[in-house]
């Protein structure tokens, strides 16, 4: 019979309500165990199971024993035995329940697999996008580096062109200054000559006006003489007596007229000569004006060139100011770089501390991992104990199978159910074997994962040790670089101080040279003044000689008293002028004596200054030797700096290699972390599967408890049978008292006694087996409590007296087990919460580790950029220092002394050629205009 439905009537204590409640509680416990992790599944399972159970209960109550019953007729007069239905494990309700449950689990498994596939696809998409973004970032970095290189090259080319232009302008600037000064001097000399010519022209004009006045007076005298002659003719006509007198007067007048005409002709000749002289002077003045116009044009051109040179100088000054500003900016940038470097060093120290903290956190995580591994091992041990428990349960099942076989031998109605139970047990054994094989595979895989994880952690530790060693080497190299930079800065400061001292001394020497040149110029000016005064005195002397000659000529002519008076007045003026010239000559002689005395004093001072100059030149040579030594030391420093830079470049290359290795290791680390995460998730899945298997085993345990209840019911059934037999015995003893049936009754009594003894033996055997089962179950429960950590108590079960006592003991045990199950559920929920917290902490620690690693990468990138910017700033600072030296040399004239010797020689040769050309021009003008010889001599002297 497939469906075992037992209807019994027994005591009220062992009622059907309690069994039904037990069955419902067992079903609920099974459903709660199966679906404790998923409330949706539990709700759906309950909705799927409660309805069919109610329907099947209703069908069973309506139909009665449709599929067969096993039992004996009970007395309806007792009335205290309710109808009880016990469902077989192979009941269609349970089969439907298992089918629905498996269907739900399959659906959930499919949903989970779909979600896992979607998550993997999303992860692959994210990885592809990450690769694309990384490729784009690399491309942007390459473009940025190319643009930086091109900008640097363009900047260097512009700086070189700017330097060349400045050098050319600085080379041409002294030539332009000299040309401008020479042209200014020529212009001044031409203006002075023009003024002298204008003064002489004024004097000639005055002389011509005086001569013209004389000619007019003579013409008036001639007109008066002619009037007199006409009057004489008229008087001669009127007075013939006075004819002779008139003839004499006429002859005298004619002689006077002839003399006046001769004088007039002479004056006209002198006037013509003066006009020719004035025409020559006018031509000379025109030529001088043309030369002045040419000089003015040259002056304008030179002014324009001077203005352009001034603009160029202003531009150069602006460029110098810009260079100074750029140098200040570079100094500020250098300070900023140093500050950033200090900040970077602080950050490196902070990173070192963070690395130590991270290493500590890694150690702590490793300890946690070891703890988790120990927990995993404990769980494995628990799983092994569960396997042992399963084996024991199997042994119990075997013993129960034997008991069932004995019961089936006694009761034919239970044969088919026994065969079905055996088939089911064999299937369960196969399932258990497959589960054991799967668990062993999982154990082997977990051991392999643990070995791989240990190898990965060893590799990570080795790489961290290598990274710390590299960081230590980098710190050493940076400290060496800092010391070299400090030494170079000290040497540069000393060089600057020496240069400042040398420039101060050169400025003092230049000041002394300027004073000497100024004194020489004053002496030259005084000599020129003396020469000019001598020339003027010679000129006045020649004029005096001419006037004396004219005076002698005029003395021979006594008839012209008025002219003599004029000449005497002129002579008086000339004498006064000669007296004044003599006084000036005496004054100039005194001045010459003073100048000679001052010249002697200046010669003495010049000797002293020459001695000082020689001393200064020796000091200068000594300073130059010191500067050469400093330059040699500077070259050595530059070589050492170059060596250090090469060493730093090597270190940078090594650092780049190490960073590349670090990045590759971090990529491997991330890959291994992903694998490790997958491996960690795999044991969690295994744990979930093991939990499901434990739930299944618990369901099997509940089935075994149901079987125990069935055995108890069978025992109660046999006790009821014994009670019926006793009632029948009393009935037969009361009803049949005849002697004929007494023997039959005795035989029946003997048979019943034998059957009672056999039943008692069977009851004792069943009690003994039940006691063994209870003790085995208590031992298993204690072991489970020890493994799960739940407090347990020693259970002492006394030998029951009857079935009611056993029922009470079992009910107490069931209540205790229920309480323990509640406690176990609470502990499981607490463990789940703790596990969730631990997983959250693990995820947070992983996130923090990733953030720290990203921060480390960012800081390494910032350090590399700071090193690059520092090198760039150092190179730009060196270039600006070179430009600063170059402009300082230009400013103080040392560059021209050092590098402009050829240009100065060429400029001097050009100036000498121009002076020779000007001297030739002055000689030609002196030949053409001898009356301008004095001025031309002054010009020649000024040119010399």
Automatic annotation (TrEMBL):
Membrane-spanning residues where? Answer: none
Positions of region (Disordered): 48-84
Q: Give the record's GO CC terms.
A: cytoplasm
Q: Which UniProt keywords apply?
A: Coiled coil
What InterPro entries has UniProt attached to this entry? CCDC40 (IPR037386)
Q: Which GO terms describe its biological process?
A: axoneme assembly
Q: Where in this chain does the entry annotate a coiled-coil region?
A: 201-277, 355-428, 460-584, 648-707, 835-862
* Alphabetical list of PANTHER family matching this protein: COILED-COIL DOMAIN-CONTAINING PROTEIN 40
Name of the molecule in the record: Coiled-coil domain-containing protein 40
Q: Which organism is it from?
A: Daphnia sinensis
């Amino acid at each position: 019979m497939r469906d075992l439905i037992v209807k019994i009537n027994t005591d009220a204590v062992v009622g059907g309500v309690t069994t039904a409640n037990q069955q419902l509680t067992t079903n609920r416990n099974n459903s709660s165990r199966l679906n404790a992790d998923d409330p949706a599944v539990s709700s759906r399972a309950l909705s799927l199971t409660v309805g069919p159970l109610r329907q099947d209960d209703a069908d069973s109550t309506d139909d009665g024993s449709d599929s067969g019953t096993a039992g004996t007729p009970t007395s309806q007069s007792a009335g205290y035995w309710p109808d009880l239905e016990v469902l077989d494990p192979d009941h269609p309700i349970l089969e439907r329940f298992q089918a629905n449950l498996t269907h739900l689990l399959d659906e959930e498994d499919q949903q989970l697999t779909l979600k896992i596939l979607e998550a993997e696809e999303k992860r692959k998409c994210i990885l592809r996008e990450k690769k694309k973004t990384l490729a784009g970032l690399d491309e942007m970095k390459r473009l940025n580096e190319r643009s930086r290189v091109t900008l640097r090259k363009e900047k260097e080319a512009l700086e070189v062109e700017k330097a060349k232009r400045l050098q050319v302008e600085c080379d041409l600037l002294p030539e332009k200054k000299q040309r401008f000064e020479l042209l200014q001097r020529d212009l001044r000399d031409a203006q002075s000559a023009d003024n002298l010519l204008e003064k002489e022209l004024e004097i000639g004009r005055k002389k011509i006006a005086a001569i013209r006045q004389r000619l007019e007076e003579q013409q008036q005298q001639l007109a008066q003489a002619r009037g007199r002659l006409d009057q004489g003719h008229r008087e001669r006509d009127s007075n013939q007596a006075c004819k002779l007198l008139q003839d004499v007067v006429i002859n005298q007048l004619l002689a006077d007229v002839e003399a006046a005409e001769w004088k007039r002709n002479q004056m006209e000749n002198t006037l013509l000569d003066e006009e020719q002289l004035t025409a020559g002077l006018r031509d000379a003045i025109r030529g001088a004006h043309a030369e002045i116009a040419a000089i003015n044009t040259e002056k304008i051109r030179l002014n324009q060139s001077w203005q352009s040179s001034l603009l160029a100088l202003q531009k150069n000054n602006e460029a110098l100011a810009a260079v100074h500003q750029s140098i200040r900016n570079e100094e500020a940038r250098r300070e900023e770089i140093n500050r950033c470097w200090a900040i970077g060093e602080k950050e490196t120290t902070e990173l070192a501390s963070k690395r130590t903290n991270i290493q500590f956190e890694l150690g702590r995580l490793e300890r946690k991992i070891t703890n988790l591994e120990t927990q995993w091992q404990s769980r494995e041990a628990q799983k092994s104990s569960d396997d042992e428990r399963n084996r024991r349960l199997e042994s119990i099942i075997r013993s129960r199978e034997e008991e069932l076989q004995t019961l089936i031998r006694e009761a034919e109605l239970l044969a088919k159910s026994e065969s079905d139970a055996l088939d089911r047990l064999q299937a369960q054994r196969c399932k258990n074997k497959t589960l054991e094989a799967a668990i062993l595979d999982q154990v082997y895989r977990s051991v392999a994962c643990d070995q791989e994880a240990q190898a990965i952690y060893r590799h990570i530790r080795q790489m961290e040790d290598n990274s710390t060693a590299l960081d230590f080497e980098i710190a050493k190299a940076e400290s060496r670089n800092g010391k070299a930079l400090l030494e170079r800065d000290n040497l540069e400061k000393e060089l600057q101080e020496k240069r400042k001292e040398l420039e101060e001394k050169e400025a003092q020497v230049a000041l002394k040279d300027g004073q000497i040149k100024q004194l020489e110029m004053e002496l030259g000016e005084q000599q020129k003044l003396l020469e000019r005064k001598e020339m003027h005195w010679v000129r006045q002397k020649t004029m005096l000689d001419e006037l004396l000659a004219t005076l002698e000529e005029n003395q021979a002519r006594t008839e012209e008293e008025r002219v003599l008076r004029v000449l005497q007045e002129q002579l008086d003026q000339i004498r006064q002028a000669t007296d004044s010239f003599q006084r000036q000559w005496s004054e100039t002689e005194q001045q010459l004596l003073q100048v000679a005395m001052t010249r002697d004093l200046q010669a003495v001072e010049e000797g002293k200054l020459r001695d000082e100059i020689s001393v200064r030149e020796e000091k200068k040579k000594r300073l130059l030797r010191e500067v050469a030594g400093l330059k040699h030391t500077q070259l050595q420093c530059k070589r050492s700096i170059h060596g250090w830079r090469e060493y730093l470049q090597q270190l940078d290359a090594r650092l780049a290699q190490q960073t590349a290795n670090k990045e590759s290791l971090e990529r491997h680390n991330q890959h291994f972390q992903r694998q490790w995460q997958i491996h960690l998730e795999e044991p969690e899945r295994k744990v979930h599967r093991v939990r499901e298997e434990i739930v299944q085993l618990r369901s099997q345990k509940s089935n075994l408890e149901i079987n125990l209840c069935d055995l108890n019911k069978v025992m109660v059934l046999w006790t009821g049978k014994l009670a019926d037999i006793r009632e029948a015995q009393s009935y037969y003893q009361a009803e049949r008292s005849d002697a004929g049936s007494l023997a039959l009754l005795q035989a029946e009594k003997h048979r019943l006694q034998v059957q009672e003894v056999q039943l008692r033996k069977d009851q004792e055997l069943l009690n003994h087996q039940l006691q063994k089962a209870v003790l085995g179950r208590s031992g298993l429960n204690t072991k489970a409590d020890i493994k799960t950590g739940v407090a347990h108590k020693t259970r002492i079960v006394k030998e029951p007296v009857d079935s009611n006592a056993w029922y009470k003991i079992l009910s107490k045990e069931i209540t205790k087990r229920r309480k323990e199950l509640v406690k176990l559920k609470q502990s499981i929920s607490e463990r789940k919460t703790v596990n969730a917290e631990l997983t959250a902490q693990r995820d947070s620690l992983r996130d923090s580790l990733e953030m720290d690693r990203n921060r480390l990468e960012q800081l390494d990138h910032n350090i590399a950029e700071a090193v690059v910017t520092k090198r760039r700033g150092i190179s730009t600072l060196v270039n600006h220092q070179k430009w600063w030296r170059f402009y300082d040399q230009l400013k103080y004239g040392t560059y021209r002394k050092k590098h402009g010797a050829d240009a100065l020689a060429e400029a001097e040769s050009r100036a000498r050629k121009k002076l020779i050309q000007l001297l030739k021009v002055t000689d030609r003008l002196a030949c053409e205009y001898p009356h301008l010889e004095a001025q031309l001599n002054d010009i020649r002297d000024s040119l010399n």
